[in-house]
Amino acid sequence: MKVAKTRRSTKLARKLGFYRHDNGVRSRIYSLTLCRDPWWQWGHRLMILTGTNEGGNWYEGGNWSEPEPPTWWYRRSETKRMWRTGYPRVRSFEIIRGDYAEFQRRTDGLNEDQMYEWQALNISQDGELQLGHRYWGGSFYGMRKDEVHILRSYLRAWHRMDWFGARSWLWSQGLHHAVNGYRPGACGVVPPRESSGYSHWHCECDRRHIGPHRFRAYEWVDGGDVVYVPQSETGTDDSEVTP
Ligand SMILES: [Zn+2]
User: Per-residue pLDDT tens for 167-177?
Assistant: First the structure.
């Protein structure tokens, strides 16, 4: 039933133009409406609000990973011969700030050499600054002096979009909370340190429950090891643990 409902809302969202894997407000609202977590499980919602949409399949609304600035592409557009020496001198750059559709439009039908004129600035999913032609083959390159101002404004844009660090911080709080699925009022005991369980597996049973502690399909008694008990009669979610 849950699946049917999700499919229906996905269809509706497509119709309304909400189903886009971008970072806009509409995509975020759409992901939030698909988020079925109870109110106390706010981690995923905070990640949706502050993260960058990687287009995964979280609730079919995207995978909101660590906030990253969009890629910029640029190339030298106009060169002029210098007086006397005749050396070429760049007059201006063509810069595309994060609009991938625009980049595709402008590079449509270019051959490899023409493609190589385009360079990129990017922050990888590991938070590393990348320079060069990486997206269409080739390796990194040394940045030329007259391109440094582009990098400088890219870094400024990065800090702005990251709310000067606050956004990454908020996102990581969301991730921590989403992984640490602790329900208020629940038993909340975690597996013993020496067991094979994880410290973010909080027992989901009621506070004064009888019998072993249980998180999803894993059970353990105080001081004991964790065992996988996929009991369908318990009525709990038997899925393998995914944060
Ligand atoms: Zn318990």
Answer: 989 988 888 88
